[in-house]
Amino acid sequence: MSTPASVMDRFPKLDPDFVRARLGRPETNPRVIIDTDAANEIDDQFAIAWSLLSDGRMGLEGVTAEPFSFAHHRDGLIRSVRILQRGGPANAEEERFMGGLGGWAARLVKRGIPAEDIDFVGTGEGERLSYEEILRVFDRCGVDPSGRVFRGSPRYLASADDPIDSPAARFIVERAVADDRPLYVLAMGAVTNIASALLIEPKIIERIVVVWTSAFPSYSPFCNRPSLNLVQDPPASRLLFDCGVPLVYLPGYHVGAQLKISLPEMERFVRGRGDIGDYLHHLYTNNPLHGMFAITETETKTWVIWDIITVAWLLDAGYVSTFLTTSPVLDDSLHWRHPSGRHPILEAFDLDRDAIFEDFYRTLGRAPRDPRRHS
Question: For residue 95, is pLDDT > 90?
Answer without folding.
Answer: no
